[in-house]
Amino acid sequence: MRIESSKSGQVKHVAALQKKARYRREQGAFVVEGLKMVLEAPPDRILSVYGSDSFLEQGGRERLGNLSCTAVSDNAFKAMSDTQTPQGILAVVKAMEWEKKDFCKSGGETLLLCLENLQDPGNLGTIFRAGEGAGVTGIIMSRDTVDIYNPKVIRSTMGSIYRMPFAVCEDLEEVLRQCRNVGITSYGAHLAGEKNYEQADYKRPCAFLVGNEAVGLSEKISAAADFLIKIPMKGSVESLNVAVAASILAFEAARQRRV
Questions:
Q1: Which among 51, 85, 88, 81 is positioned nearest to 68, based on CA atoms?
Q2: pLDDT 10s digits, 70-104
Q3: CA 61 to chain centre
């Protein structure tokens, strides 16, 4: 089968998944682009794969291995893609599913990132990628955080979307109460932190809280944290990019646990 027209129902379906968060939620699916993202997708979650004529004619089928792929004209593929210069290969993937047990590890290894109202897709994707590298066991996002399946977020994760357990919660304050009840200590990144971040002990189960790019953590969530910590600054800089801050905290926990 080959798709020629950009007016094809399948083309419109993929384009809608790229553009509309509500449609992604209704369909329980999202789109990944590029050979790396397609090949790393869990095989049991791939719903369909599409390759442009140019990609397939230049050895694309061989690089896909056993993955079946629907050929699409170059013009139709452009209508499906979210990028200026499409790589010629994309897949529709079933939304990821994680259970509570996936977030908490035995032996004190639990390390969570709790994100409040992040709005920049690149920041969210970078936090997923850095979180995986630092050994974070799960990421919890407030409902008003940018959609995890936004195409820009997906690209920024560089594949970590498949491996990093995550959840979207209605009440982040309640999540912190639940963490406290099971022995997970929460640390909020805040300019009013009582301690510098490296002075706290992260060897036990813990969660880091970071807030919106413009205003940081809300007063409500700051008050709900067990401790407030800060990253000391020199010069005239008041705060760091939220993805940078989250990465610093996660890797400090990783460093302490290695030692």
A1: 51
A2: 999 999 999 999 999 999 999 999 999 999 889 98
A3: 29
Q: Are 210 and 126 in contact (CB under 8 A)?
A: no
Count the residues in the chain.
259
> Does residue 238 have a pLDDT over 90?
no
Sign for the CA dihedral angle at 20, 21, 24, 26 comes to negative
Note whether 30 and 78 are within 8 A (CB).
no
All residues at 6 or more sequence positions from 81 whose CB lies less than 8 Å from its CB, including other chains: 18, 33, 90
Sheet containing 185-189: give its strands across.
Answer: 166-169, 138-142, 111-115, 206-210, 185-189, 227-230, 195-196
Could you give phi then psi for residue 142, rounded to 5 degrees?
-70, 160
b/e 113-130 (16+ beta carbons within 10 angstroms → b): bbbbbbebbebbbbbbbb
Whether this prediction's pTM lies above 0.90 is answered by: yes
